[in-house]
Amino acid sequence: MTRWLLPMLCAGAMLLRPEVSLEAAADACALFARSVLPGLYPYMILLLVALDRLPAQAPYPLLVALGWGAGSPCGAKICAARQGSMDPRALRRLAVCCGTMSPMFLYGTLGQWLQSPRAGLCVLLGVWAGALGISALLPRGNASPGSSSAFSPAAPLSLGAAVEKASITLLTVCGCMVLGNVLSALVPALLPGLPGGVRLALACLAEATTGCRALALLPLPLEIRVGLLSGETGFGALAILLQNRALGPRGLMSPGAQLGYQLLHGLLSALAGYGLAQLLL
Q1: Total-model pTM
Q2: pLDDT: is 37 or 156 the higher one?
């Protein structure tokens, strides 16, 4: 029953405060166009072309590097392409490790928001360190492909087809951002007595890009903001969870397990990012 009731309740809440919903949706679309699309779009086009030509024997570190280089949800698409040709334990470890946000956003956009390229680099390295840390806690499994490989297309993917697929995928990303941002705006609008700290926490839980923008503006020392941003981007929030579940392998992890992995990733990334900031800033 709750599978249809919860979406209907959320839709009803949007109708109660349509002006808030429209403004939050427009803000998410603008943030997507300015801060996410420019870095993720070209990466995703090139990644799709590369994945189509990737041999079945591609080593595990190369898959991680591709996921890190392209950013979420490209890591989820890499894992989906490997489902059926990789041990489920190794595939789960890969999904947890490479489900990170785009390095263009972590290093470039956050570096600009913090007015320090070094701070952006600390966030990037902190998130990657958190990914390595959490993946080290999971069973390795057999990363070698099985007898059946998903990489046997009839014809190589053309550039035009890659652009089309990337465009469709990015609409999914934008949609998840919009849902998260509308949720984080509706709750305070319907409950106006919420403290500012609770509102900030809701924004960080619902949509990572919006949460990062708010965290970057906090009147706190730069090292603390780097730690907070590393934790937020390592966690990824509800929007990243929705992206990875929409585009990743089917049935690999339950929503609860995936959320738990993201939370642990965020904690490890926050510690690593803060430590790096202490050393490099």
Answers
A1: 0.81
A2: 37
Query: What pLDDT was estimated at residue 150?
Result: 42
Q: Is the pLDDT of residue 153 over 50?
A: no
pLDDT at 280 over 80: yes
Return d(Cα 278, Cα 276) in angstroms, integer: 5
Q: Alpha carbon 54 to chain centroid distance?
A: 23
Phi first, then psi, for residue 218 (nearest 5°) are -65, 140
Number of Cβ within 10 Å of residue 248's Cβ equals: 22
Contact in structure between 172 and 73 (CB atoms under 8 Å): yes
Which residues in the chain belong to E strands, given as ranges?
A: none
Is the predicted pLDDT of residue 151 greater than 50, yes or no?
no
Please report which residue ranges of 236-254 form alpha helices under DSSP H.
237-247
Confidence of residue 222 (pLDDT cuts 50, 70, 90): very high
Taking Cα atoms as reference points, which of 69, 67, 100, 71 lies closest to residue 82?
Answer: 67
User: What residues contact residue 202 under an 8 Å CB cut-off, 6+ apart?
Assistant: 183, 184, 187, 188, 194
Asked if residue 193 lies in contact with residue 187, where contact means CB atoms within 8 angstroms, the answer is no
| R_g of the chain, CA atoms, integer Å | 19
Do the Cβ atoms of 100 and 68 come closer than 8 Å? yes
Residue 231 has pLDDT above 90, yes or no: yes
d(CA 12, CA 24): 16
Q: Which amino acid is at 185?
A: A
Q: How many CA atoms lie within 13 A of 25 on its CB side?
A: 9
Cβ partners under 8 Å of residue 153, min gap 6: 52
Count of residues for the chain? 281
Q: How far apart are CA 156 and CA 48, in angstroms?
A: 11
Question: Rounded to whole angstroms, how far apart are CA atoms 228 and 103?
Answer: 17
